[in-house]
Task: inverse folding
């Protein structure tokens, strides 16, 4: 998911460059400075958001790996308990059948 976000951020940056390149011949120096300042501010905000998104995705991924490990351990314990139950049940029916015969 973070790869998709990074690709889109790159595409948006390319489009922003094209738009600012088209606007430059018609704008005054003051407007250029304001545009440049606003662009830098937007880039910083976007970088911060992208970083937070990457960090969140990384946390979600590590949580998923932890959860998977927990489920694997539980599955092994359940298999062990089932085997024990089957063994005890077999012993019980064997002893009951010997008692009844």
Result:
């Amino acid at each position: 998911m973070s790869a998709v976000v990074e690709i889109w951020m790159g595409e948006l940056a390319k489009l922003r460059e094209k738009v600012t390149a088209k606007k430059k011949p018609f704008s005054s120096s003051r407007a250029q400075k304001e545009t440049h300042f606003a662009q830098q501010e937007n880039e910083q905000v976007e970088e911060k958001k992208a970083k937070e998104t990457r960090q969140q995705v990384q946390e979600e991924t590590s949580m998923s790996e932890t959860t998977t490990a927990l489920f694997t351990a539980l599955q092994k314990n359940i298999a062990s308990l089932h085997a024990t139950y089957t063994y005890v049940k077999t012993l019980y029916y064997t002893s009951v059948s010997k008692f009844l015969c």
In short: The longest helix spans residues 29-100. The CA atoms of residues 84 and 90 lie 10 Å apart. The radius of gyration is 32 Å.
